[in-house]
Amino acid sequence: MSDQPQSQSSPGIPQDIIRKYDEELVNPPAPGEVGPVTAAELKAGAAERAKQRPFLQKILSVFQKEKGSYRELIINSEPLEKRVALLVDGRLEKFEIERESDNRMVGGIYKGRIKNLDAGLKAAFVDIGYTKNAFLHYWDMLPAAADSSVEVVRVNKKKNAPPRPVDPTVKDIPQMYPPGTDIVIQVTKGPIGTKGPRTTTNLSIPGRYLILTPFSDGCGISRKIEDPAERKRLKQLINELTIPEGMGVIVRTAGEGKKARYFVRDLHILLKTWQDITNKMQNERAPACLYQEPDLVERTVRDFLTEEVDRVLIDNREDFERTQQLVAMISKRSANKIAFYKDSIPIFERFNIERQIEQTGQRKVPLPSGGEIVIDETEALISIDVNTGSHKSRGGDEKNVIYAVNLEAATEIARQIRLRNLGGLVIIDFIDMKERRHRNAVYEKMVQEMSSDKAKNHILPISTLGILQMTRQRQQESLSSNLYTDCPYCRGRGIVKSATTMSVELQRKLSSVVRRLQLRNDGREYSLRVLVHPSILERLRSEDAELLVRMEKLFGVKLAFRADPNYHLENFKIINALTGEEYR
């Protein structure tokens, strides 16, 4: 491919067409409105695919908790990025993206070296080989306190171990870990913006049904498993598991109803992983990565197959074969659910996923009945506004229409928060509701919709101002941060100065320059050339022409203007027409 610029007079292409293309390329692409795919269309497509399942799977699905919903995992694996979409009845419920260039830090275990301690922040900064030092709070350097979300069933202490010293406190940290000390830490929160990764010394390695805690001896069960009979069975199972002394395990919610042999197999895989980590820990010099979370495909298989997915469809032969092997290690029956996608139509287009993803980049999201929600990400918080728009009232009074829109919005907001991976503080401005029972019902709907989210969240009731405040655990950057970058033209402000503002600024600057030139009193007549954007020149020629003529007469200067569409709208230059000297 030649590096020479193409000639303007390309053979065979008329000049007017070339000019048209040039004009189109200079301007940003027109904003495309994505027409929503109706839930009925998506559900019909999913129902059709559900009929094609093997007969045995259809029978098993009848006994599942969520009767009637067809869950599919669609994995698109390309050289530069991998994308995973979870469809429930054809509707996009979860979307993840991982690029080849991404550093899979969250969950990774590193051997690092303490660079410095900050007494004010009560934190250590650790070199783990990343561009920014990892942040390690003093509290995260102490043995973990009891987790309220886990019920401890068994304490797996080391036998014949020496009496345990008194637990250290925050005051003891500087003596225990002076700068230069090697330390093993796990990343709990990836680097976001200018902040380095957040870490802890309390390691945990997640499996499919168990989480291994090598430095904590408490063995417990997730409190999300509520059935008393099941909890009793799992307690007995934990007491029977052969766990190395001094280590602990936690039963994940995915372990509910699973046979004992699955836990034994899972524990065996986790202990082998830990053995590899300890070998690296002893042999590698800091900074070094001891363990990295699996890639998106493997992680998805580990986490999502626990959610009774009906089918996994992968469009890459290598990832398909690897996934089958991984799943066969855990459950041979589940391996039958994994299928290889062979169609010529791209997999995300085939299932209407691309159109649904496009909507996640838009500020306004339409609601089925005609209302809309508006989502804005700012530095401090995420703000979400609910509007009635052209809501189709079904013959009810105004109060019930507003209540219906808010209920609909709560469902869609919870979905959008998961899809966009929004985290931190979220403020939702629902339409004002007079009745307290309506406010409470919308709050409860929001809590219910967010309960299926893996990220921890905390939701407050709707305030008297009609505002709902919530927080959601932020582990990685949001989807928009991944897909978009700040506009190089407006530098992320989303606005540029108007032609009037620029005209005022230019005239102010011109006035300052010509006054300075007049003070030289050298008897010369100055000719100034002004370089501006065409839209500013248009304003100067029409509305402000008289002012410029008056300036020429008053100060005895000649003004000439040159416009170029390639100039930035907020830039202008004033130069000497003869010498080319710039006046600032």
Descriptive account of the structure:
It is a single chain. The protein has 584 residues and is α+β, with helices and mostly antiparallel strands. The protein contains 17 helices and 26 strands. Strands 4, 5, 6, 8, 9 and 14 form a 6-stranded antiparallel β-sheet that branches. Strand 4 and strand 5 (123-127) form a beta hairpin. The longest helix has 24 residues, at 260-283. It is globular and about 100 Å long. The model is unreliable at 1-11 (pLDDT under 50).
Task: List key phrases describing it.
17 helices, 26 strands
Outline the low-pLDDT stretches: 1-11
Structural class: alpha+beta
In percent, how much strand structure appears in the residues?
15-25%
Beta-strand segment tally: 26
Quaternary state reads single chain
**Rounded average pLDDT:** 81
Biggest β-sheet description: 6 strands, antiparallel
Give the end-to-end Cα distance, rounded to a whole number of Å. 43 Å
Backbone CA Rg: 31 Å
Number of helices: 17
As a percent range, the share of helical residues equals 25-40%
Query: What coarse outline follows from CA principal-axis ratios?
Result: globular
